[in-house]
UniProtKB/TrEMBL annotation:
Family under the similarity heading: Belongs to the glypican family.
Function statement: Cell surface proteoglycan.
Protein name in UniProt: Glypican-5
UniProt xrefs under PANTHER family: GLYPICAN, GLYPICAN-5
Places the protein is found: Cell membrane
GO terms (BP aspect): cell migration; positive regulation of canonical Wnt signaling pathway; regulation of protein localization to membrane
Species annotation: Eudyptula minor (Little blue penguin)
Membrane topology, from the record: Lipid-anchor; GPI-anchor
UniProt keyword Lipoprotein present: yes
Superkingdom of source: Eukaryota
Any one of the GO CC terms: plasma membrane
Major localization listed first in the record, in broad terms: membrane
Keywords of this entry: Cell membrane, Glycoprotein, GPI-anchor, Heparan sulfate, Lipoprotein, Membrane, Proteoglycan, Signal
Gene name, Swiss-Prot/TrEMBL: GPC5_0
Amino acid sequence: DLQICQHRAPTCCTKKMEESYQAAVRRERTQSIQALNFELKYMIVGHITAFQEAFESLLRFAENRTSSLFETAYRPMAKEAAEPVKELFTDISLYILGAETTVESAVLRFFDSLFPLVYSRLINPGITDLSEDYTECLRLTRQDINPFGRYSKNMVTELSKSLWASRMLSQALSLGIEVINTTEHAALTKECSKALVKMQYCPHCQGLTLIRPCVGYCLNVMRGCLASVSELDAQWREYISTLEYLTNEMAASHDLEIALTGIRNSINEAILHAQLNGPQLSTTVDKVCGQPKQQEGNLSSDNIMPVKEATEIQTFVMAHASLNNKRREFINYMKRSRTFYASIAERLCDGDLVMRDSSTCWNGEDVV
């Protein structure tokens, strides 16, 4: 009653043993594909972590530089500006990680929060009435009167270009892991598991426990079993090319590091522009929001929380070099894995599975 290992000679197998063999080949195939995938997956996961650490390091550095701008140049508003600055960099981090947000909304939200502070602490430092309604009116007015000139738009443009490549790379790495995980658990067809049993275990039914499959026979069986997986070859090659393109984009004109460290200067220029146009802005705001209460003299800048200075430029240089090295290492490794799915059958038929240095091997029917 054997279904797979039928043979002219007497056999020591039963139908139940054939079923056990089918379970064994399914388990072994999954394990052998997992073993092949392990190094590739390990490299991608490792680089997701490494890139993320480098991004975080650069973001912290840029955030500290931006905070120190308010502490040194705009002390009257430093304490209140801390929260909008923090929110801006949190939004940037979330954007890189693939959150449903845009660079434009993050930057404009920041300038919406900044305008009431610039207006009441720098342009009209005597204002005492910063009620919620008046603050909200200033926020909404910012969108119409554009107090920061072209600098807010320029900041959106610069950051969008550089952060886009980082965001795409982050998503692409996650996609790579997803593809590898899916191929590991690709189900074997009944025909495939029968072919694998015939190749690996039918010799055992004849008492031939040491004989191994012939190389050509193994390749035919594996290519048949892995046809759906090897179809990924063209897409995988394209995926590697896309990763290469994205890493080059990050390192070239859309340099993440330069864009992040440029945030401080963009904000500074924007505030200076608003101060220069203070009288015109005040006239417009008075018409739209009404005249707020005034008090004589400048507001005290006591109780401002000191901003911890960034550990000089050294931190940035190290994070920058680290990110560049990781990009190079990673893309060189991934380029070597270009043929991963095309050569998967060859790699599974390598090593101990087949008989290489012997004149006898199993061809599916007999020893040859």
